[in-house]
Amino acid sequence: MHFGPHLLLATLEGLVTSAVLALTALGLSLVFGVMRVVNVAHGEFFMLGAVLAWAITSAIGGHPALGFLAALVIAPLIVGAVAVVAERLVLRRLNYNPEATIVATIGMLYIIQQLALTFYGPEARPVEPPFSYRILLPWFGYSGYKLSIIAASAVLLIATWLVLTRTKIGLIMRATQYDSETAQAFGISVGRVYGGVFALGAMLAAIAAVLIVPISQAHYLMGQDPLLLSFIVVIIGGLGSLRGTVVAAVLIGLSDGIISMFFSPTLAKIIATLLVAMVLVFRPQGLFGTASR
Amino acid sequence: MTDKNGFFDLSKTTLTRRNALKGLAAGAGLAMAPGFVRYSQAQSSAPIKIGFQSHRTGIGAAYGRWYEKTTAAAIKAINAAGGINGRQVEVIIEDDGTDPGRGAEVVGKFATQHKTDIVFGTLFSHVVIGSAPAAGEAKMPYFVVSEGHHVASTKLNRYVFQPGITDVKSQIQSMAPWIAANAGKKVTQIFPDFAFGYDHRDYLPPALKAQGAEVIAQIAIPPTESSFTKYFPQIPAETEVIYHVMVGPAVLTFVKELGEFYGSNRPQLFGFIDSLEATDINSPGLEFLDGSHFWEGSPRYAQPDDSAAQKAYRAAVGIDDNGAAVGDPKDVSTAAHMFGCWETLYVVKKAMEDAGYKGPEDRAKLVEATEALKEFAEGPEHPQGPKTFNGKIHQCFGIQNISKVEGGKLKVVHKTKIEDGLYEAEGDYTTQAL
Q1: Which of A245, B117, B420, B421 is the most exposed, fewest CB within 10 Å of its CB?
Q2: Is the Cβ–Cβ distance between A18 and A252 less than 8 Å?
Q3: Which residues from B are below 8 Å from A122, CB to CB?
Q4: CA atoms within 13 A of residue A96's CA, in its CB half-sphere
Q5: How far apart, in whole angstroms, are the C-alpha atoms of residue B357 and residue B366?
Q6: Which of B63, B230, B258 to mutate to test the interface with A (most CBs of A within 10 A)?
Q7: Residue A124 φ/ψ, nearest 5 degrees
Q8: B168-304+402-414 architecture in CATH?
Q9: Facing A221 at nearest CB: one of B65, B221, B249
């Protein structure tokens, strides 16, 4: 294959990775930004979203688009509910203590993962895409659904940004992030904000998973890679910065797609990790983060 | 970050003398409980204990579950027929997480804690390679059902056997003539970037060369990869056959993306069913595989010429004519590999009877008795087909099935002969000390 089409394919693949990564990492970034909780179980919420998408689509039947749309609505809601319960039962009782919540979320990771293995099983199960249109380019074919993931992710990111910057809920969240004690003094129920943010973070991961599951499969171990990549993206982009998260996700996704196609996938991972190290050394707050007060 | 609640302050959790004594007493009581040493004086009537190193979690979990089902069915049949040397057989399962480090620990646990007679049942090649030294050190006979060439390469040790399933080198060698004659002469290989994949990487090119065909590109893919389109531009345009062997949960994606990349205008495909074990061949996106060919150890779908033994074996394990669990058509088995558990257990039975095996002190005798075995006739104990066994390299040789995807089923179109897969021994385990 010639250089041009080769680069085009690499870029498309990279953009799909970026789109999913941006949504997943944004969830992680929000939870840390507002609650100062490092949610190690974030990848498991992603997995849960995919597993539920499989369960919902196979329960509904009919045209694949019907089941998929239902999954896109219902799966994140269920995952959000699970997250609220986890937040109430575990994180709140630990007073959101940063060290304790890391250990607690590691525990949640294993509990969710093993429950999925017990009730869903070890198989990788497919979900049919809502439509299967194959775009025929002169050099190769490409899945139309994959392109729609990029569009869907962009829409969702813009919606999240609007909520955060233009609505009262967003204002309350930003106030809590900026200074939770003062926010409380002004009558904001910080506990409820925390519950909501934790659910929102988990839901973003679940939506990303529902989008990706028709081209990947639902599997009980699928949460590990997104977790790792989300941490990389969040560290590079700056914790709690929406813009940084998106820019870093595109950067990591594209470099992963292009480097792994022209050189090797291992090199792509090495470079991503090196980038994290460099950012931590020279700009610990991340590319777009603000220095901690 | 402060530790406000003292979660990490060890001084807060003090151990009182009274609590320590209570714990000690409970432990001693447990050790002296009657059940704990029940069989130590009555070895002759105690069950034979087989330690099953199972991939219950990790990427091998789907295989692990079916290996357990097959093993349970075989043990049930063996016990119903009087056990081994008049003793019942008991299986103790430990999960290795499909991880080599954990695998070695599990072998150690079987040797020192469960005191099993043998260890059995491992599939993934990296776990076998990681666990074999521990088995050799503990002088624990280790019967694997792995398909890799590592046992037959004689690079492991005298305690490791693979008597129930053929190895990759033999499989490739016996199928290469068919590939060259029926699929194409210019082959591109796609394989996982670890031990099992390297067997394919190393043995396919010479086997095809001997048939006048050639491997024109080799593409290694990390086993944890979840997206594959980025590798496909490396496939040369003149490729006539794509030879694919993949493992792990992402293989469905692999096939679907290959379908999107090529559409209907694709090269021939020859794959190892390992790519699609425990996966319904009629899953969405797999239409692309229609008309392609697969290696199968034992056929997933019931074939018109199935022997009575094959039918009885399928009924005992509980799989229907489509190779799925009876009563749950979505629960597809790992039929191409799991027969190896059944057959290996019957080899163990035969070897224990030949050796007059009484207990762990006879493990060396068991090794020698296994090495002395020459062939296994097709029948209820070996439903996949007849096999020969080379005691010097601890490996069996048998027939292979090449199946075509046709109308949403796998139909066997070619069976190789045992002789097709024989090769020169690369070493001799029997010269190693026991």
Answers
A1: B420
A2: yes
A3: 57, 61-62, 64-65
A4: 16
A5: 7
A6: B230
A7: -90, 125
A8: 3-Layer(aba) Sandwich (3.40)
A9: B249
pLDDT of residue B19: 60
Residue A98 in contact with partner chain B when CB distance is under 8 A = yes
Residue of A nearest to B263 (CA): A141
Which residue is it, tokens 């430990």? B94
Query: CB of A270 within 8 Å of any CB in chain B?
Result: no
Q: Do A122 and B256 touch (CB under 8 A)?
A: no
ipTM of the complex: 0.73
Segments making up each domain of chain A, as ranges: 24-222
**Pairwise CB contact (< 8 Å): A222 & B226:** yes
Task: Tell me if chain B has a CB within 8 Å of the CB of A292.
Answer: no
Interface subset of B 28-57, CB within 8 angstroms of A? 57
Q: Give me Rg for the CA atoms of chain B.
A: 24
H helix runs in B263-402, sequence order:
308-317, 335-355, 363-371
Share of chain B above pLDDT 90, in %: 72
SS3 content of chain B, % helix, strand, coil (to 5): 40, 20, 40
Residues from chain B contacting residue A98 (CB–CB below 8 Å): 1
What residues contact A135, with CB distance under 8 A and at least 6 apart?
A141, A142, A143, A144, A147
Neighbours of A245 (CB within 10 A): 33
Which residues make up the CATH 3.40.50.2300 domain(s) of chain B? 48-167+339-398, 168-304+402-414
Residue to mutate among B124, B229, B332, B334, with most A CBs inside 10 A, is B229
Q: Chain A partners of B58 at a C-beta cutoff of 8 Å?
A: 221
Residue among B265, B3, B430, B325 nearest A94 (CA)? B3
Model confidence pLDDT, tens digit, residues B54-80:
999 888 888 999 999 999 999 999 999
Phi-psi region of B296 (alpha: psi -120 to 50; beta: other; left: phi over 0): beta
More confident residue, B270 or B251: B270
B1 contacts A126? CB cut-off 8 A: no
Find chain B residues with C-beta within 8 A of A94's C-beta. 5, 7
> Measured between alpha carbons, how far is B412 from B403 in angstroms, rounded to an integer?
4
Asked if the Cβ–Cβ distance from B222 to A99 is below 8 Å, we say: no
pLDDT grade for B34, boundaries at 50, 70 and 90: very low
Q: Is the pLDDT of residue B11 over 70?
A: no
Q: What is the pLDDT of residue A292?
A: 52
Q: Which residues contact A77 (CB under 8 A, 6 or more apart)?
A: A203
The burial of B81, by beta-carbon neighbours within 10 Å (0-12 exposed, 13-18 middle, 19 or more buried), is given as exposed
Where is B287: in which H helix or E strand? Answer: none
Cα B52 from Cα B93, distance rounded (Å): 5
Q: Which residue from B minimizes the CA distance to A132? A: B285
Which residues of B fall within a CB distance of 8 Å from A123?
62, 249, 278-279, 332
Tell the residue number behind the tokens 């646990």, with chain if given. Answer: B109
Q: Give the integer Cα–Cα distance in Å for B240 and B237.
A: 9
Hey, of B188, B224, B227, which one would you mutate to test binding to chain A, going by the most A CBs within 10 A of its CB? Answer: B227
Q: Are B253 and A13 inside 8 Å of each other by CB?
A: no
Q: In CATH, what is the architecture of B48-167+339-398?
A: 3-Layer(aba) Sandwich (3.40)
Other CB atoms within a 10 A radius of the CB of residue B16 amount to 8
Q: At residue A48, does pLDDT exceed 50?
A: yes
pLDDT tens for residues B365-405?
Answer: 999 999 999 999 999 999 999 999 999 999 999 999 999 99
